[in-house]
Amino acid sequence: MPSIKLTLGIESSCDETAAAVYGGNPPGFVEKVARQFDIHSPYGGVVPELASRCHLEAVSMLVTETCKEAGADLNDISLVAATAGPGLAGALVVGLTYGKSLAFALKKPFVAVNHVEAHMYAACAESKIDFPFVALVVSGGHTLLVDVKNEFEYEILGRTRDDAAGEAFDKGAKILGLPYPGGVSIEETGKTGNAAAYDFPRALKEKKSLDFSFSGLKTSLLYFNQKNPDAPIEDVCASYQQAIVDVLVRKSVFAAQKLNRKTIVLGGGVVANKKLREDMNSVAKKKGIKVVLPSFNLCTDNARMIAYRGTILYE
Ligand code: KG4
Ligand code: ZN
Question: Measuring from atom 16 of ligand 1, which residue has the nearest CA?
Fold first, then answer.
């Protein structure tokens, strides 16, 4: 098997088109991302058909520019990896087909990468983390607690029974008339707010359950907003964010304690949230548990995690 010198990663599962080149000694990344916020913003969420068209327009140029910035010719690429799912079918097919075709044309190997697994292992791309660890994966489509035993084996401990954590942010923002993506706008608006102003529900509080539920929280925000249209929006956002963060932190720490794991690793777009990062760190630290947080550009959808995971899987 030829050794992997440079991996090209491609991501197009939702509303970010991204290409990354991974390799070198010590290994590093060059990445380019095309975001579609402005395209979807008027609709308050991602419109799949528009997302696919934007990926089609962006992918080839992004790959060319990323390779150029990495100082690599396409022929220097030794492996191509692309997101194969889960995600929007019409969006996924763009990056996946492009990646496969490119690998075929270059006569190089191709690896299909699971997007959620890539989020779960993303932090490993920039720091050496000892296995086993508990992973919290929180994105727009998933909320998972996972016991990660090694690079290839893991067991799902708990998941959301309804909305994902990112969805709770996105739908909450929509209720409050804030722009998409909701996580960013709720965090921004709540920055100066009082997180203890309103007591939104924390579902499945009992310690024994490692599952999550956020749909009741979203409904309670809807009723609250109808009854209290003049409540200061900063306080509402800060309190709503706190309700989501509290549950994520409490359950992650409990899972680590239950399994006697010394490390919690976070992944997914919601990990860009500063309050989640701060609270997870401070609560876990008190229990003697280490927290590993990926850099911001490894949290939201990106091609670095795809290139990294593809390399590990291939090797
Ligand atoms: O991982 P990701 O980029 O895409 C999916 O795989 O779904 O996650 C997107 C989610 C969205 O729901 C978005 O609102 C949320 O991550 N998000 C945030 C923040 N930035 C993005 N949630 C809370 N705070 C943020 N700063
Ligand atoms: Zn994602």
Answer: 269
Look at ligand 1, atom 10, and give the residue with the nearest C-alpha: 140
Closest atom of ligand 1 to 173 CA is 14
Residue 291 pLDDT grade (very low, low, confident, very high; cuts 50, 70, 90):
very high
**Is residue 4 very low, low, confident or very high in pLDDT (cuts 50, 70, 90)?**
low
Q: How far is the CA of 180 from the centre of ligand 1 (A)?
A: 10
* Residues 6 or more apart in contact with residue 119 via CB below 8 angstroms: 137, 139, 142, 267, 268, 305
Report how far ligand 1's centroid is from the alpha carbon of 286 (Å).
27
Q: Which domains does the chain carry?
A: 6-120+300-314 (3.30.420.40), 129-293 (3.30.420.40)
Inter-residue contact 78 to 2 (CB < 8 Å): yes
Residue 2 has pLDDT above 60, yes or no: no
For residue 210, what pLDDT is reported? 95
The pLDDT tens digits of the residues spanning 37-55 come to 999 988 888 999 999 999 9
